[in-house]
Write a structure and sequence with these properties.
This protein is of the alpha+beta class and 274 residues long. Helices cover 36% and strands 31% of the residues. The chain contains eight helices and 13 strands. The chain has a six-stranded mixed beta sheet with strand order 7-6-3-4-5-11, with helices on one face. Helix 1 packs across helix 2. The termini are far apart. The mean pLDDT is 92. One of its GO terms (cellular component) is cytoplasm. This is Hsp33 family molecular chaperone HslO. Keywords: Chaperone, Cytoplasm, Disulfide bond, Redox-active center, Zinc. GO terms for molecular function: protein folding chaperone; unfolded protein binding. It comes from Candidatus Coproplasma stercoripullorum.
């Protein structure tokens, strides 16, 4: 199941999101054929991306999270839109280690220009890095607990909890958020046994009584297509494309997000320029 549960708690001083992303993470693992460690890292990053996408307001809103590890520690990227269409990839050869580098977030929420924030990675834990990002780049006190649990090729559970303190929050709200975060030491196992809704009720049942809980459903869906790739090729010009054909025999474009190869021969290029 893939679901985001969003609401306000602590007298509307805290924004709460509980995510269940098991099917989303399984789909990503199947597309990329990842090892459990790499799939876990990508799955946790996809869960964070789904949370950020769920916060977008504009009809054309989009967000991307990119991690570049240092000294060959690997890289990964996820992106999503306001419709919660998610996609991502990871350098599987790094064994899922994403540390010692930087995290960059780009948000386009329909304003004059996209917001770009960045921070140094503080560990190989995705939750800690996202907390650090919100603290450094957006100055929003945030507690993040995301996880993904794998048994070989199978994702047993994935999801998480994100709590953000809103402007004007009280000391009681701070204590509540820190206390709840301390209780969630293995969120993936909690998702496995209770599901997202069960986690919501277990930890926040008293807080959500009478509150509206907004439910959305993220899914893994790449936005690439042969038509879109064709449009990009057209911008290269006919001469450049014909030179590539002479050297390589065909033009191949690979989408890292959905692991798809688009191939174009001489006849395809000829049709593009008709």
């Amino acid at each position: 199941m893939n679901r985001l549960y969003k609401t306000l708690i602590c007298n509307k001083q805290v924004s709460l999101t509980v995510a269940e992303t098991t099917d989303l993470v399984q789909r990503a693992r199947d597309i990329h054929g990842l090892s459990p460690a790499a799939a876990k890292a990508l799955g946790e990053l996809l869960t964070c991306g789904a949370y950020m996408s769920g916060c977008l307001k504009s009809e054309k809103g989009a967000v991307s999270i990119t991690i570049k590890g240092a000294n060959g520690a690997g890289s990964a990227s996820v992106s999503g839109d306001v419709n919660l269409h998610m996609r991502g990839y990871i350098d599987g050869s790094a064994g899922g280690k994403l540390e010692g580098g930087f995290m960059t977030v780009i948000k386009d929420d329909g304003f004059f220009r996209p917001f770009t924030g960045a921070c140094e990675l503080v560990s190989d834990d995705v939750s800690q890095n996202l907390e650090h990002y919100f603290d450094i780049s957006e100055q929003i006190p945030t507690k993040v607990r995301v996880g993904a649990l794998f048994d070989g090729k199978n994702c047993l559970a994935a999801g998480g909890v994100v709590m953000q303190l809103l402007p004007g929050h009280s000391g009681e709200a701070v204590a509540f958020v820190e206390g709840k975060a301390a209780e969630m030491y293995d969120i993936a196992s909690e998702i496995k046994s209770l599901g997202g809704e069960g986690v919501l009720n277990k930890y926040f049942g008293n807080e959500i009584k009478g509150a509206h809980v907004y439910i959305t459903e993220p899914e893994y869906k790449c936005n690439c297509s042969r038509e879109k790739i064709s449009s990009i090729l057209l911008t290269m010009g006919r001469v450049e494309l014909e030179n590539i054909l002479k050297e390589q025999g065909e033009i191949s474009v690979h989408c890292h997000y959905c692991n798809t190869d688009y191939k174009f021969g001489a006849e395809d290029i000829e049709k593009l320029f008709k």
